[in-house]
């Protein structure tokens, strides 16, 4: 498995957009937290979170290409399970539905980061420290808020046994723990 340092270098070689890199770093933190809660390997799951969008710029996030191209880049650098979860975070390209805990965790975990960041941005100070779990769950119900964030994907947390309230709290705390790195 690739080292964290080399994974960061690889990410920066493939992704130029600073906001996309922040999304990947946030996803890493959330996936590490989910792994710890689920009794899984936080290094493996964190790297999957960090590298899940490594092909986003190469594929222009084309839903029919994004994901499988990452598998080519990451071949032999991550576990087969991590690569599978990365490919499956975009069901459109795979043509299959997510079925494993790792697949659901990555899809839900990376998706909730966008809702949390959008929630922070409506606060006067625009800081993650100000965000409350209740605000995130409230925003889940507001379809017009951060409309591109797929609520159904976030709710896959419940398929792995984590109620949405607990999932929002876990993700928020994980992101607050790296707020300086995220600039929020």
Provide the helix percentage.
55-70%
Radius of gyration: 15 Å
- Characterize the biggest β-sheet: none
Distance between the termini: 30 Å
Number of strands: 0
Please tell me what the overall shape is: globular
H/E element sequence: HHHHHHHHHHH
Strand content: under 5%
Structure description:
It is a single chain. This protein is mainly alpha-helical. It has a single domain (4-182), classed as Hypothetical protein af1432. Helix content is 61%, strand content 0%. The chain contains eleven helices and no strands. Helix 5 packs across helix 7. The radius of gyration is 15 Å and the shape is globular. The N and C termini lie far apart (30 Å). The mean pLDDT is 95.
How would you summarize the topology of this molecule?
Elements: H1 4-14, H2 18-38, H3 42-51, H4 68-74, H5 80-88, H6 91-94, H7 101-121, H8 133-140, H9 151-154, H10 164-176, H11 179-182
Helix pairs in contact: 1-3, 2-3, 2-7, 2-10, 3-5, 4-5, 5-7, 7-10, 8-10
Short description:
By secondary structure, the chain is mainly alpha-helical. The chain has eleven helices and no strands. The mean pLDDT is 95.
Q: Which key features would you list for this structure?
A:
184 residues; mainly alpha; Hypothetical protein af1432; 61% helix
